[in-house]
Design a protein that fits this description.
20% strand; binds zinc ion; 35% helix; globular; binds D-malate; binds flavin-adenine dinucleotide
Length: 445
């Protein structure tokens, strides 16, 4: 393309939506954790699918790579530039259709936040079937692209299970349109399924068709202190089989409880345990009795909204409390439940062997075998710690990414859990859909 790229983009999105001033670009150039980011060439904020297509075409013709960005709450460095790319912000794609009550589905622009979707679904008597602490900023495009999980994935699945269809512009400029919302449609390759979890490397998602769920009006949560992770795994088995209304089983450890309590300025409601679970059950009937039958006597039960929220804050505030303590290396991993005890017991030693001064905080989604390993106080030793922790995960038959994605953070370690042939197949897909390497270079493969 001849001429100035910024001027050309301004003809598509309007000059107010092409940001060149370093101060205006800055919030788009650093990730939520503060660990990743670099200067972009410029930031462009498209308003709809046709603008997205035009922006991609112009960038491709100019030979300038593009980093798609939603709410920029991703935690693996995939949403921010590595240096000199155009950041394509999708937060203006906020169209939101009426809830289709026949299918319990709704069409939403990629920039609609999870909180807006939750409210919209709630007004129709339904629920998004997904929740996590970044709900006010995380967008449906980002959620689809990372295949996000969250607090109720045990009950409702990850984003993949909630997405009935999507529209996207691929790296080569072709357009995928699959918004019919058909439950059964196996005509050819499932391109939407390929785009879910592709972290902005194959195409830019512009719209999704989201499957809503029927909310359960009666809810009860419990904070359960336990004396070992083995006891937690045993209780999980009992909950899974004897509490059909089970919605979430999350865990944190004493170090996390202490950090969060001091961050929130509250007294911990329990202490002295080795592991803490937050268990939530939800049903059309009151699930208190069903839950109480299997919980230990010292479990604290919360059956009204205010006390449930207070309980959940102890779990949900881990991310913020850790960020307030410093820039952490965050490793979101999945471990087979049979190996969870061994993993949690070994991780602090693995970290301490390489970085004796570092602080390791472990918490996560117990029912999904999804552990968030957060290491504070790392310096030059950070990469070695990442590798050692991820190697341990791989040795135990786990995955180096459960819900946050590979991004930049874990791209060097993909070979720990995917065979060379599989990685080559991924590269072949990338070359086919994004032949010029326009989208999110360095992410995933
Ligand atoms: P971004 O951060 O903007 O982007 C994430 C990735 O998707 C990037 O690779 C980007 O290039 C790509 N992308 C974004 N939009 C598009 C698009 N329209 N088309 C193509 N590619 C796109 N995650 C969980 O899974 N579970 C949790 O429980 C959870 N809790 C969190 C709590 C906090 C406090 C924070 C800060 C984060 C949490 N996250 C969690 C991580 C994060 O919120 C999710 O990964 C979320 O899906 C990112 O959405 P986003 O709109 O912010 O995407
Ligand atoms: C969570 O479950 O709270 C998140 O995935 C965020 C994090 O890992 O910090
Ligand atoms: Zn999580």
């Amino acid at each position: 393309m001849t001429g100035n790229l910024a001027d050309a983009l301004a003809t598509v999105v309007g000059s107010a939506h092409v940001l060149e001033d370093p101060e205006l670009r800055a919030p788009y150039e650093r990730d939520w954790s503060g660990r990743f980011g670099a200067e972009s060439r410029l930031v462009v904020r498209a308003a709809d699918a046709s603008e997205v297509a035009a922006v991609l075409r112009m960038c491709r013709d100019s030979g300038v790579a593009v980093v798609p960005q939603g709410g920029n709450t991703g935690l693996v460095g995939g949403s921010v530039p590595r240096g000199g790319e155009v950041v394509l912000s999708l937060t203006r794609l906020t169209s939101l259709g009426e809830v289709d009550m026949t299918t319990a589905q709704v069409e939403a622009g990629a920039g609609v936040t999870l909180a807006v979707l939750q409210k919209h679904a709630g007004a129709a008597g339904l629920d998004a079937g997904m929740d996590f602490a970044a709900r006010d900023s995380a967008t449906l495009g980002g959620i689809a692209s990372t295949d996000a999980g969250g607090l109720v994935a045990f009950r409702h699945g990850t984003a993949r299970a909630r997405i009935a269809g999507l529209d996207a512009v691929l790296g080569d400029g072709s357009v995928v349109r699959r918004m019919s919302g058909l439950l059964k449609d196996n005509a050819g390759y499932a391109l939407p399924a390929l785009l879910v979890g592709s972290e902005g490397t194959l195409g830019v998602i512009t719209r999704v068709r989201w499957k809503l769920v029927v909310p359960n009006p009666e809810r009860v949560a419990a904070l359960v202190p336990l004396d070992s992770i083995e006891a937690a795994a045993e209780l999980l088995g009992i909950l899974r089989t004897r509490v059909p209304s089970l919605e979430a089983v999350e865990f944190f450890l004493p170090e996390g409880l202490e950090l969060v309590s001091s961050y929130l300025g509250v007294d911990p409601p329990v202490d002295g345990a080795a592991v803490y679970l937050i268990v939530e059950a939800a049903a059309p009937f009151d699930p208190t009795e069903e839950l109480a039958e299997v919980l230990p006597e010292d479990a604290l039960v919360a059956d009204d909204t205010a006390s449930r929220r207070r309980m959940w804050r102890l779990r949900e505030s881990h991310t913020e409390a850790i960020a307030a303590a410093g820039v952490a290396h965050k490793m979101d991993v999945g471990v087979p439940l049979t190996a969870l005890g061994e993993f949690l017991a070994h991780v602090p030693d693995v970290v301490a062997a390489l970085a004796p001064e570092a602080r390791t905080i472990l918490f996560g989604h117990l029912a999904d075998g999804n552990v968030h390993v957060n290491v504070l106080g790392l310096d030059d030793d950070g990469d070695a710690v990442d590798e050692a922790v991820l190697r341990l995960v791989a040795e135990l038959g786990g995955t180096i990414s459960a819900e946050h994605g590979i991004g930049i953070a874990k791209a060097p370690y993909l070979g720990l859990v995917r065979a060379a042939d599989e990685i080559e197949a991924m590269r072949a897909i990338k070359r086919a859909l994004d032949p010029s390497g326009l989208l999110n270079p360095g992410v995933v493969v």
